[in-house]
Each structure stands twice: as C-alpha cells, then as structure tokens.
C-alpha cells in the first residue's frame, strides 16, 4: 500500500495485489505433479538446518541435499530444516524423498495459491500451510507469502516462498540466545512459535490499515476528500476481504489441532495453541470491524457528495427563482408593440428598474426567513 499526500492534505493510497495466472502446465497434469505456481524467482533455493536441544544448538547451511537427511526418531535433538524458495521442483522432490513426504503434500508446498489448511498423514507427520501478510518497507504495498510446515516426531520442515528476507529470523535468534521455551520444548512448540510470528504480523497489518482508515475518515469529515477517495475506500475494503480470506482458514486450522488429539502435538503445547487461537479470533473481529468502518465511511462520503449536490442545486434554484420574475418583466417590456403606454413614459425605465430591485429584495428576505440559504 503506497501513501502519498494530495493537494488538500488528503492522504492517497495505492494498493497492489500480486496476481498469478494458474500455470497452464497444471491443466491436465496428474495429481502430485510438482509445478511451481507463483511469482517468478531468479535465484537458487537456500536451505538451512538448525539442530538444537536445551543444552546446545548447531546451524548449518545445506549445500548438498544428501546431508539433509531425516533424523533418528530416538534422538532428543530437534531438527529444523528451513527451505527458502519453493520454485525448484527438483529440490522439493528430493526433500520429499529424504523425509518420505506424500506427493500431494509437495504439490501444495509449490502452489502459492493454496488456501491455508492442516492435514495429518497416518500419524507420522503433520502438514500445515498458511499465508504471511506484511507491508513492504520501501513501497508499503500489502503483500503475502505462502508458507508451509511439515511436523514430524523430532523435526520440522518450513518452506518459505520468498526471496530475500528470512521471515523466521526472530525465532532463530531466540534459539541462538537460548532464551524462552523454544530450546526446552519439541518441534510442535517450534511450529507454534513460527505460526505465532505469522499471526503477530497480522496485527501489524491491521494497525497499518487502521491508520489509513483514520486518515480517510479525517479527510471525509473535514471535507478535504478528493475525487479518488471512493477508489481508496473500495481498495481498502478489497484488501480487508482478501485478508479475511487468508486469516479465516487459520482459525479452522487451530480449531482442528485443538480438537483432534494428535500424537505429534504434546499436551504442554495445547495452551499455547489455544492462546494463538484467541489471537486469530481477535484478528478476525478487527477485520470485520474495519470492514464495517470502511462501509460506514463510504456511506458518509456518498452522503457528503449528495449534500454538496443538494446545496449546489438549492443555490441554483434560488437564483433561478429570483431571476424568473425579472426575466418575465424584461420579456414583457421587450415586446415590439406600439400600443404600450409605459414605453412612452418619461420615467418608465427607472420605474421598472425600481420595481425589479424591490421585487429582488423582497424575494431574498422571503428566502432568508424560510432559511433556504
């Protein structure tokens, strides 16, 4: 979302959405075919593995996929594999082979248009996907990123769609600092921590949208709104609708994780997931409130335009009412008849002007008493 300043002090907003055409290669392809659907990316996938427990941790940048093997189930070390880039089918397929992941799961990982969801595969691993929403620092455009997670007994694989910045760096910093509960808990808590980071970004986006709604509200109330105000309001409503479309399935995901007893989710993690569920509900409530506010502002703006039009029409009507009898008088004495005694009166011209002036004053007094202006 881009913010500019108009000539009347009204802030202008430009929102852009990334639109991806569904790949033509998808049409007719067999289920599980790995085809990337998303923004074009021109760099190689980066893979980083973080192994940790309460006592120690190691961070390794993976250059050979053969070294990114599945950890031993008996190990007490949590293995976090962070994959930055989902655009290379060969890389995603190799990771799937290493961890014995279902082909349909890998297909959802590479499809950035996949809606958020959670699925469990035979109790051996759990798959979750959702959308990260944020504003780009330079242009303040509202953008989204497709994220996927595979949770195993003692490992977690995270897939990021994006390109340059590591969205999960704050969680990695906590692991390296040995602070908080991340190092003392299993991969299910790590999944919660990453999802909590995503939900925290939802609040940041909402704060930004609230600020822009307040700016538009001030412009409308102060009658400083320009002609593009209607476009900005519709754009904000569309962005709120898209945001709700991305957040609502997250509520269903968390509800399913809380209701279904999965062996991969430990009882100690349930309270944190319940708190995360409450945060998502709060985000959805805020989205609905802002949508109602945007609708209200739209009604106020249209009412303001209607009142302005009514004021203009009333002013024009008053002028027309004043000049109508004057035009009638002028029309009568403008007729070319010889038998019009007033035309031969010496002071007839001044008398008619006086009558017209008195008539104008009387009509103005009448309109003022009726409070028509």
Automatic annotation (TrEMBL):
<keyword id="KW-0813">Transport</keyword>
<dbReference type="GO" id="GO:0005886">
    <property type="term" value="C:plasma membrane"/>
</dbReference>
<keyword id="KW-1133">Transmembrane helix</keyword>
<feature type="transmembrane region" description="Helical">
    <location>
        <begin position="347"/>
        <end position="367"/>
    </location>
</feature>
<keyword id="KW-1003">Cell membrane</keyword>
<keyword id="KW-0460">Magnesium</keyword>
<dbReference type="InterPro" id="IPR045861">
    <property type="entry name" value="CorA_cytoplasmic_dom"/>
</dbReference>
<keyword id="KW-0472">Membrane</keyword>
<dbReference type="GO" id="GO:0015087">
    <property type="term" value="F:cobalt ion transmembrane transporter activity"/>
</dbReference>
<feature type="transmembrane region" description="Helical">
    <location>
        <begin position="316"/>
        <end position="335"/>
    </location>
</feature>
<dbReference type="Pfam" id="PF01544">
    <property type="entry name" value="CorA"/>
</dbReference>
<dbReference type="GO" id="GO:0000287">
    <property type="term" value="F:magnesium ion binding"/>
</dbReference>
<dbReference type="GO" id="GO:0015095">
    <property type="term" value="F:magnesium ion transmembrane transporter activity"/>
</dbReference>
<dbReference type="InterPro" id="IPR045863">
    <property type="entry name" value="CorA_TM1_TM2"/>
</dbReference>
<keyword id="KW-0406">Ion transport</keyword>
<dbReference type="InterPro" id="IPR002523">
    <property type="entry name" value="MgTranspt_CorA/ZnTranspt_ZntB"/>
</dbReference>
<dbReference type="InterPro" id="IPR004488">
    <property type="entry name" value="Mg/Co-transport_prot_CorA"/>
</dbReference>
<keyword id="KW-0812">Transmembrane</keyword>
<protein>
    <recommendedName>
        <fullName>Magnesium transport protein CorA</fullName>
    </recommendedName>
</protein>
<dbReference type="GO" id="GO:0050897">
    <property type="term" value="F:cobalt ion binding"/>
</dbReference>
<comment type="function">
    <text>Mediates influx of magnesium ions.</text>
</comment>
<comment type="similarity">
    <text>Belongs to the CorA metal ion transporter (MIT) (TC 1.A.35) family.</text>
</comment>
């Amino acid at each position: 979302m881009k913010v500019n300043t108009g000539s009347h002090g009204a802030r202008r907003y430009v929102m852009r959405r990334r639109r991806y055409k569904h790949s033509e290669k998808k049409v007719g392809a067999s289920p599980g075919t790995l085809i990337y659907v998303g923004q074009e990316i021109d760099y190689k996938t980066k893979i980083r593995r973080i192994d940790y427990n309460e006592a120690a941790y190691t961070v390794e940048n993976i250059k050979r996929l053969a070294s990114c093997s599945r950890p031993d189930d008996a190990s007490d070390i949590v293995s976090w594999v962070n994959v930055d880039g989902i655009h290379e089918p060969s890389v995603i397929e190799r990771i799937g082979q290493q961890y014995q992941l279902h082909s349909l799961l890998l297909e959802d990982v590479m499809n950035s248009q996949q809606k958020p969801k959670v699925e469990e595969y035979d109790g051996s691993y759990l798959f979750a996907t959702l959308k990260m929403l944020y504003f780009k620092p330079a242009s303040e455009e509202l953008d989204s990123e497709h994220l996927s997670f595979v949770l195993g007994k003692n490992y977690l694989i995270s897939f990021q769609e994006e390109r340059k910045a590591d969205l999960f760096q704050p969680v990695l910093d906590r692991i390296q600092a040995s602070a908080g509960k991340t190092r003392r808990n299993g991969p299910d808590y790590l999944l919660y921590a990453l999802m909590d980071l995503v939900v925290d970004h939802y609040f940041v986006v909402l704060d930004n949208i609230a600020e822009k709604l307040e700016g538009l509200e001030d412009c409308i109330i102060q009658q400083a709104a320009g002609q593009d105000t209607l476009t900005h309001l519709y754009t904000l409503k569309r962005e709120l609708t898209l945001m709700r479309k991305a957040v609502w399935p997250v509520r269903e995901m968390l509800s399913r994780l809380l209701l279904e007893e999965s062996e991969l989710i430990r009882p100690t993690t349930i309270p944190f997931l319940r708190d995360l569920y409450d945060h998502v509900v709060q985000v959805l409530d805020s989205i609905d409130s802002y949508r109602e506010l945007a609708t209200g502002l739209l009604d106020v703006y249209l009412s303001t335009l209607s009142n302005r039009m009514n004021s203009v029409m009333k002013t024009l009507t008053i002028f027309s009412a004043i000049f109508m009898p004057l035009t009638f008088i002028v029309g009568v004495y403008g007729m070319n008849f010889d038998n019009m005694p007033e035309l031969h009166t010496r002071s007839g011209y001044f008398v008619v002007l006086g009558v017209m002036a008195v008539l104008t004053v009387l009509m103005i007094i009448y309109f003022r008493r009726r409070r028509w202006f």
